[in-house]
Amino acid sequence: MIVITTARPDEFAAAADVLAEAFVDDPVARGIVPFEADRRRRLAHLFTAVLRSGPGPRGVIDLARREGDERIVGVAAWEAPGSRRGALGRELAQLPLFLKAFGPAGLPRAMMMEHRLQRHRPTVPHWYLADIGVSVSARGLGVGSALLRARLDAVDQAGLPAYLESSTPENRRLYARFGFGELASIAGIPGASPVAMLRSSPPDPGGLG
């Protein structure tokens, strides 16, 4: 059984390690952090900064564990409607970690690619799945589905849509089972072709698996 809890600040570093492991070979992550030798270490810095600054006071970071095991095996970071208010100040506070992730020369490139991703977000209030990842040891156990199901139930109760970007066909198939539909391909990410996906509210019951 997979148990879902909300992350505490003292769990952010461990959660970032899980995301770094999950994204080390992800096409978008490779485009944003194009350092082969130490990409996982840099991604750990990046996700620590993102978890500290990104979701904001109204967002949420969900953690997945196997029942009876304290080790984190999955992470989903969600931004609630309005979470971006005050984001710049939170991100500036994490600038040292962003620099460790990208290097001084790579920071402008990363900011440009992040802008290309963000400009596809809906203009209406919505929940945004910023990041979701599962540790290698727990893949195939339904961890990603458990994380999605737990938060989407709350999103449905609020009567709001949900949005994400997906970088692989395999992940898009999973999201489609939860009612996400493809909106558009996102250009400008080296070596990657992420797709913007939206889940309407209420979702079409025929799209749920």
Which helices and strands occur, and which strands form pairs?
Layout: E1 2-6, H1 12-23, H2 27-32, H3 39-53, E2 60-66, E3 72-79, H4 87-93, H5 95-118, E4 127-134, H6 143-158, E5 162-166, H7 169-177, E6 181-185, E7 195-199
Parallel strand pairs: 4-5
Antiparallel strand pairs: 1-2, 2-3, 3-4, 5-7, 6-7
Helix pairs in contact: 1-3, 3-4, 3-5
Please give a handful of descriptors for the protein shown.
209 residues; alpha+beta; Aminopeptidase; 7-stranded mixed sheet; 7 strands; GNAT_dom; GNAT family N-acetyltransferase
Protein architecture, described:
By secondary structure, this protein is α+β, with helices and mostly antiparallel strands. The chain has a single domain (2-207), classed as Aminopeptidase. Helix content is 43%, strand content 21%. It contains seven helices and seven strands. It has helices spanning 12-23, 27-32, 39-53, 87-93, 95-118, 143-158, 169-177, and strands at residues 2-6, 60-66, 72-79, 127-134, 162-166, 181-185, 195-199. A seven-stranded mixed sheet has the order 1-2-3-4-5-7-6, with helices on both faces. A hairpin with a 5-residue loop joins strand 2 (60-66) and strand 3 (72-79). Helix 1 (12-23) crosses helix 3 and helix 3 packs across helix 4 (87-93). The two termini are 19 Å apart.
